[in-house]
Design brief:
- It is a single chain.
- The chain is α+β, with helices and mostly antiparallel strands.
- It contains 10 helices and 4 strands; from the N terminus they run βααβαααααααββα.
- It starts with a strand and ends in a 5-residue tail after the last helix.
- 32% of the residues are buried.
- The mean pLDDT is 94.
Length: 202
């Protein structure tokens, strides 16, 4: 049986987008199964706190500009477009849709669709109607998402956030192998080396 590796992601994270792109290679080269899971970063809370301090706000802006410049270094060779969002979006609806797609066995199709649209500014992830349309495009019945959104969706997200934090996760993307964390898509080479040492190469 393949070794399970949870991969914690936030649908608003450009580095999470890059991490999704290495799943196929990892599963091809090693006897592993990568399981994407949503983890909700408190982006609004952090940004709001920073705005209370002008110096912190200025540093934060410089950091964000650098982050998007840096992520494009990785994205451009892969043919991916990464445009910075025009505002800090709430990710809860996207993450509930992520759960629904996972339940339906279409997590990867959903992630490919949501990330490409979000970072090309072609979807408002705070719009349930737009998310429903995306789900329809990948062959899912949006009614199931609506039921989850209006039902236990938020409680399931909270439980997953708690599970991630109990495992030591603090940011995304994070791969977890036998309790060891590999944070960042640029740690994939270290993950691959660890998998090889464990004799998991196919």
């Amino acid at each position: 049986m393949p070794t399970l590796i949870p991969l914690w992601l936030d649908c608003r994270s450009p580095y999470s987008y890059l991490a999704v792109k290495v799943i196929d290679a990892l599963e091809r080269d090693f006897d592993v199964r990568i399981e994407p899971r949503p983890y909700s970063l408190d982006i609004k809370g952090v940004a709001g706190a920073a705005m209370l301090d002008p110096a912190a706000a200025a540093r934060g802006l410089r950091r964000i500009k650098y982050l998007y410049m840096d992520v494009r270094r990785f994205a451009t060779p892969l043919g991916l477009t990464i445009l910075g969002p025009k505002k800090v979006f709430d990710g809860v609806l996207a993450h509930i849709a992520f759960l629904y797609a996972t339940d339906c066995g279409k997590a990867r199709a959903f992630l490919d669709a949501i990330y490409s649209r979000f970072f090309e500014r072609r979807i408002d992830i705070e719009s349930s109607a737009e998310i429903e349309a995306l789900l329809g495009e990948i062959g899912l019945d949006p009614a199931g998402y609506v039921a989850l959104r209006d039902g236990e969706g938020r409680a399931r997200l909270a439980a997953l956030d708690a599970a991630a934090e109990s495992a030591g996760v603090f940011a995304v993307p994070t791969f977890v192998l036998d309790g060891e964390l590999f944070w960042g898509q640029d740690r994939v080479d270290l993950l691959r080396a660890t998998l090889a040492k464990k004799g998991l190469k196919t």
